[in-house]
Design brief:
499 residues, alpha/beta, 4 domains, five-stranded mixed β-sheet, 18 helices, 14 strands, elongated, binds uracil
Amino acid sequence: MHRVTLPPIGTFRAWRDAARSFLAANVPPEQILWGDHATAPDLFSDDSPPSGGGAVSVPRSFIQMAETVVWHSDPERFAHLYAFLWRLRETPHRNLMSDRGDRDLARLRRMEKNVRRCQHKMKAFVRFREIGRPGAARRSFAAWFEPTHHIVEPTADFFVRRFGDMDWRILTPDVSAVFEQGKLSFSEGHAKPDLPEDASEALWITYFQNIFNPARLKVQAMQSEMPKKYWKNLPEAAYIPRMIAEAPMRARAMAEAAPTLPPARVEQLKAQLASCKSAWSGPSEALPKAIRSCTRCPLHCNATQAVLGEGPAQADLMIVGEQPGEMEDLSGRPFVGPAGQLFDQAAAKAELDRETAYVTNAVKHFKFSVRGKRRIHQRSDVSEIEHCRWWLDAEIATVRPKLILAMGATAARSLTGKETGLHARRGTIETGRAGLPVLITFHPAYLLRLSEPEVRKQAEAQFTQDLALAATFVAPDKAPAHSDHLQAFTQEAPSPRAP
Ligand code: URA
């Protein structure tokens, strides 16, 4: 049995040299007892590692891992490393270093990670206090730190790079790093020194309190970033419990005092909002061209073309559908597909002459999803309806009809702003957003989808009745005596047209 005790300073080099010698001499792991100054204080019982033996080749990735793992505080770390090194040599074909399922490798990787994490904490939590004489050529600082692993030696370079122009020492119970006149050295551990208060400490605490955001407090995340064991040596940590306790109150105060938008920006936003809601304001002759080149919402990207309204420029009746279907998208004309045909049949029964009405849609582009070779209609969403209202409002302002017939929920929503159920509202007249009467009815495509013959028959009858009502509204001489609510509305409704 061989005994090896590794020194606290220069540990990696010492382990590497010893491991190389044992490996070259074919000494198996179970014949070596590894220890460090803490676990094997009896330095004189050591064997010198065997000398001689053949050349040893070790994968670079193992060396890199070992360079970190040797600083772990687990007394078994040297033994684990050597045992793995032995397996690497015995099974070169197994590519052990990249075997994620290998338990020995996984343990070493965990140790490596712990050491790296500890190094990271040291970089973040070492707090220096000034100890030099005033007026000395180089300022001098000292810090007390209590790391979990033996990481002073592999981490010291970081502080050399950071604080190369001053003298400093980092004292720990284990190993201390001293940097004087540009030279780094290590010595054995220290008892906790009595370091003076530092003038910059108050500044540090103020900084810490200021970067603390009570509205984003996550106690667990904070404690995992700044584990409690480090608190005793961090001046700012004394303030943490109070800051946590006061966080809800401070977050509330922050919300109440939230900054308001600067007035100029508010005005700009208001103007933008207003312009979104208002209609297009160009000359009516330019409206068709403007609609054709609309890019206000993404629907224009896939549709063949925008489908314009059609009919007399000064029609008494405006009929509004949802959006063009497949046939309308291809032909560029509203209500020419199956829904249009059903509409035409019902209009004929209701003695409504479609040619006298201005027929349009709430949304001007066809919205669809592609299934195989087919384009399947998709309902327009609120944003698309609202974007397209810009055009519908412009059409209403240009045509100035006496009555608008809203066919289906999309048209009703666009014209009245209300989304409540269509069934309860069908056949009634509401005042639209433009102040004009809006008669609500079914959409013809809805009737086409009704598979129950009786239900469809009844719905078609109601639809025809609504079309007849619309026809009489715009030609009152045709009005049947029973349409009392219509007459009442006609009397109340403001005249949309200039006399
Ligand atoms: N459905 C509509 O809403 N409008 C059309 O133009 C065609 C079908």
